[in-house]
Write a structure and sequence with these properties.
Layout: E1 13-16, H1 24-29, E2 34-39, H2 45-52, E3 56-61, H3 73-85, E4 89-91, H4 113-132, E5 136-139, H5 153-167, H6 169-176, E6 181-184, E7 193-194, E8 217-218, H7 225-230, H8 253-265, E9 273-278, H9 299-315, E10 321-326, H10 329-333, H11 341-348, E11 393-398, H12 407-418, E12 421-423, E13 438-444, H13 449-456, E14 464-469, H14 473-486
Parallel strand pairs: 1-2, 1-10, 2-3, 3-4, 4-5, 5-6, 6-9, 9-10, 11-12, 11-13, 13-14
Antiparallel strand pairs: 7-8
Helix pairs in contact: 4-5, 5-8, 9-11, 12-14
């Protein structure tokens, strides 16, 4: 199955219903593409009304504290009734890394076979049944927790996928190839910003000065310049002393962690990610400035940031990112103080539809006895395409042998002039679809040239490498200043 064969609206905008209601005509007027429905009984007509209005429903059958127990017969009947209505996207096992989803007093630990084995075995049985009736099953959604506890997101990702690789490799790959999608719950707090005009990539506009109609938005946390300058090398899996347990609290956080393992260990090209709840917390329902490195969330920045997030998903995010169902309808539309300002922007601003390339769910893989340690790409598979005239994107990559504390000072004028994207992990290249092209400006000492070439060219032969050779910090500042002076982005 290819990524473009999944049936959906191609509109990343989504909304999660309130406890019992969602106004489908209003959502159609505000041009939503996804509607998340939590089913308490037999099929709700809201799903049919949503589909008739061009929206794609995602249905989760609610069970209180299911833990890792099997899906019951009543739930199967509810799923069947929604499928007969035409719904294809289904969800179960909601946030199993949280105690609230387990029976009172139950032990749950992602490192315990007693927790993971029944969870994954029961999930596979459900997923295969959903596929058998023509639906798309979700890989279980997780809450973003990075505290070093038994609820940590990365530990659960590793536990679930590690068990499947060791015990059900081919069975899981068959699920992947027949409609699996990844459900995530990215509550991104204030991990987004828009660059201040003329201020550089690390200079964020004040919250009430952002504007969705202008560029310079960043939703790639923790890979954005602010976070990378503060904690160089931080990834969604952590990798630094300041993030020892991972840092998935971003739009693509847990999704990119899961996708990296799927691609490296199961031969995956790409499968969809749908954030079935999440987004920027509505003002009054979350801390306005959870991370003081970034501007606080105000009603103004919430409105413009939310619309910018959806447009970023359509134009910048990896091809596999399909959208976010905002938490939730009553927080936005049924408040005592009326609609939030974001509602007006939804009505005024048309969505940008997402172009989805034909990336296969599975690429060629080894036999079950020797699962592939890495994915080997060819030019017609995931990754950037050839450059025609001028590259669509520029990544700046700092070789591991260089310190980063001097980089931003040396590169400030260059950054202001050309607005490249700083990456600290070459795996980020994988996020680009084949209909986009890429130049990687690699800042390196001479001894690292061969390592960079062998890390990029065999996997992504269409990527052009623009080397900047440095031995002292002044070398970089001199080269970048020369480029700015003559208006030359590349050497």
């Amino acid at each position: 199955m290819n990524l473009n064969e999944y049936e959906w609206s191609r509109n990343p905008r989504g909304m999660h219903q309130a406890t019992f209601e969602i106004d489908i005509p209003l959502m159609a007027r505000h041009r939503m593409g996804w509607i998340k429905i939590v089913a308490l009984g037999q099929a709700n007509r809201a799903a049919a009304d949503a589909m008739a209005s061009g929206m794609t429903p995602v249905v989760r059958v609610y069970r209180e504290r299911p833990g890792n127990s099997p899906v019951d017969e009543g739930a199967y009947n509810q799923y069947r009734s929604y499928r007969e209505m035409g719904v294809k996207w289904f969800e179960y096992y909601n946030e199993p890394n949280l105690g609230v989803e387990w029976p009172q007093g139950a032990a749950y630990d992602p490192r315990s076979l007693a927790t993971i084995q029944p969870l994954m075995d029961n999930w596979m049985t459900w997923a295969e049944w959903i596929i058998s009736i023509g639906g798309y099953p979700n890989f279980p959604s997780l809450s973003d927790v990075n505290t070093g506890s038994n609820e940590d997101t990365i530990a659960w990702i590793d536990g679930m996928l590690g068990y499947l690789k060791q015990n059900h490799y081919e069975r899981f790959r068959n699920i992947i190839n027949n409609g699996l999608y990844i459900a995530t719950h990215p509550y991104i707090y204030n991990h987004f910003y828009q660059e201040r005009t003329g201020g550089g990539a690390r200079s964020a506009r004040p919250a009430d000065a952002v504007n969705v109609s202008e560029g310079g938005w960043h939703f790639e946390y923790p890979y954005d310049p602010i976070c990378q300058y503060d904690d160089p090398g931080r990834t969604v899996r952590g990798g630094t002393a300041l993030a020892p347990n991972g840092d998935t609290v971003g739009l693509l956080g847990s999704a990119s962690a899961i996708m990296a393992i799927l691609q490296a260990e199961f031969g995956v090209g790409a499968i969809p990610v749908v954030s079935t709840e999440g987004g920027i917390f509505a003002p009054g329902f979350g801390p306005p400035q959870a991370d003081n490195r970034y501007p606080p969330v105000t009603t103004h920045s919430h409105a413009h940031g939310t619309l910018a997030m959806f447009e970023w998903i359509s134009t910048v995010a990896p091809a596999w990112m399909f959208g976010v169902c905002l938490w939730k309808f009553d927080d936005y539309y049924r408040r005592e103080d009326g609609f939030l300002p974001v509602a007006g922007l939804f009505e005024q601003r048309a969505p940008i539809m997402k172009d989805v390339p034909a990336i296969p769910a599975l690429t060629d893989a080894s036999s079950p006895a020797t699962p592939p340690p890495v994915i080997v790409l060819t030019p017609d598979l995931p990754g950037p395409g050839p450059i025609h005239g001028y590259a669509d994107y520029q990544f700046v990559f700092l070789a591991p042998s260089l310190e980063t504390d001097w980089f931003f000072d040396a590169a400030e004028a260059y950054w202001d002039a050309f607005k490249p994207v700083l990456v600290v992990d070459l795996e980020f290249i994988e996020f680009l679809p084949s209909n986009k092209s890429l130049v990687v400006t690699a800042i390196t000492t001479p001894d690292m040239i061969e390592w960079i070439e062998t890390s990029i060219t065999p996997r992504w032969p269409n990527v052009f490498i623009d080397f900047i050779l440095v031995e002292q910090p002044d070398d970089l500042a001199r080269e970048l200043s020369n480029r700015v002076a003559v208006g030359r982005r590349f050497g």
